[in-house]
Design a protein that fits this description.
Oligomer: single chain
Strand order of the largest sheet: 1-2
Strand content: 5-15%
Number of helices: 2
Helix content: 25-40%
Order of helices and strands: EEHH
Distance between the termini: 30 Å
Largest sheet: 2 strands, antiparallel
Number of strands: 2
Structural class: alpha+beta
Length: 57
């Protein structure tokens, strides 16, 4: 599974009917992404659905 699929920023766009990253990359980050040089996403946050429940316990 790709890390993007586990990220909180990976959302479904109903208009385009596909998943996409909703992070607005600056020009430097976008160039790294398009060239495939960005292996570690600095915006990655695990989409932990049960994190809130564990916190409340």
């Amino acid at each position: 599974m790709d890390l993007c699929e586990q990220c909180v920023h990976y959302v479904y766009d109903e208009e385009w009917e596909c998943y996409e990253c909703d992070v607005n990359l600056d020009e430097d980050d976008m160039v790294k992404f398009l060239q495939g040089r960005n292996t570690d996403c600095s915006f990655f946050r695990l989409d932990d659905e049960y994190g809130v429940v564990r916190h409340q316990m």
